[in-house]
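Below is how a single chain appears once it has passed through the pipeline. First comes the sequence as given, then the structure the pipeline wrote out for it. We keep one example in the README because the format questions we get most often are answered faster by looking than by reading.
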Amino acid sequence: MPKRIHLRTATALAAAGALLVSALPAGAASAASTFTQTDLVRTTNAFLNAYYINGGDFKTSGSDGSAIHFWEASFNRETLTDASRLTGQWKSKISETYYRYENTHSANRFGNPKCWIGNDSDWNDDYSWATQFALDAYEATGDPHMRDQAKWHTDFFYRDYYDNIDGGGFWRERGVQDQKDVPSNGFAIAAAELARYYPATTVHNDPLNVDRTYLQIAQDTYNWLKASFLRSDGGFENSISGRDWDDNLYTYNAGVFLELAANLYDLTGNTAYITDGRRVADFAKNHFTTGSNKVIVYEDHVGEDGLYRPDPVTNYEIVFKGIFLRGLYKFITMGRQSQYLDWLSGNAQSAYDHRTNDLPSATFDQTVTNGRSTGVASGLAAMTYTLAARKLSGRIEGENGQKYGTGRNETAASASNGQLVGSIDIAGAGVAFRNVSAASALTFRTASANTGAELSLYVNGVKARDVSFPYTGSWNAAFADTTVAVPIPDGATIKIQFDPGDVAANIDYLTLSST
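Resulting structure:
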């Protein structure tokens, strides 16, 4: 391997926005891909059979049975969570793998009995990716402990390890503060996610002596990343510090920036985030790819040997393209940039076509054996995101929407798929569904022990109407349907929300239809 300035990073996980789940038939796929949800279930099961160990860990590779470091495992966990939310499979494993991580890495430190920082030699970006996974796992399970832990760790690192040296940003390490890079600022993605649950909450920063909301933390970090690392051609450099400048161009960093841009556009509607994101996405499409389908295989070591392929068995950099494709997926769905869907789909199809023993290829465009687990997971993630990026139509499960405020997934035996969205009972709480198909009517399946239940319906951020729901005598056992006529444009975002004066109801699912 040529000498490189490596980054020890983890994944741009999740936290950032809910996985959109289509109610199209399981056999349906996008026009540019031949695989289906049935194929995704089969290949994910093959992945679990090959790599899942110890009730929540993952092997490093097919030839190395040791558990992979937790920052890479965070990407595998995120991939499993996203595939679960799309297919309804492996739900119990989401909690299993989260608590496996927490129980093997936590210590009673810094006032938190379950603080993940049991090892002071781990770098800050490692905890960024664990934080993002915890938020995505919360979205899938509704387990508030996961959300609370993600919040605590975001607060902890922002409070003491974000300052204005070199213009801003999170430090790469706590003990040796001599480098700032893109990966460690994945905490901004977590902050953007937390802004949906805690829009008015502020966090105090000690070095700057300021109090900032989560949205402000995400925006400050975004502006610093853009000013520090974004080149005019859309290339995204890596780090700035007292060490050597690292001007390498990694797909990883492009993915972090795309996911953050997508979240901030979703939260603010500011199209400047889309303009920036297109520059980064277009550069990546033209620079890191091979073949007519622009399959991502390269990273770029600018200062020495230029483009290179990471080793798909031993090199952790093999996951970088998976991190990028997650950011691209968020940019497609949250940012409404469907022009990149065929590119995403082409990468997924190539990984699927070059699979071995039903494991998508870790290198995407070549058939390999004993691939590193994060490389195989990158292929699975590309398949999941391709299927999930289709427009939502038909019946859409409430638990697969993006929750806001106190809204959360709750277990309910009588609900469809065993979950519903509850706690929509405080102003700002709700659930949103992005990229829906055109419709003229919505049918909500709800439960409410309140008489006169009513919530507010928003379409593309504009209130469309109040929706009244019947009394069912229970919050989770008896349900009723309510159909309302409302024009829904193609690709719209639908949000059902508790506004002042509303009366709570729980949402099982909604159905889009035409009259």
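The first helix runs from residue 37 to 51.

See the next section for the split statistics.
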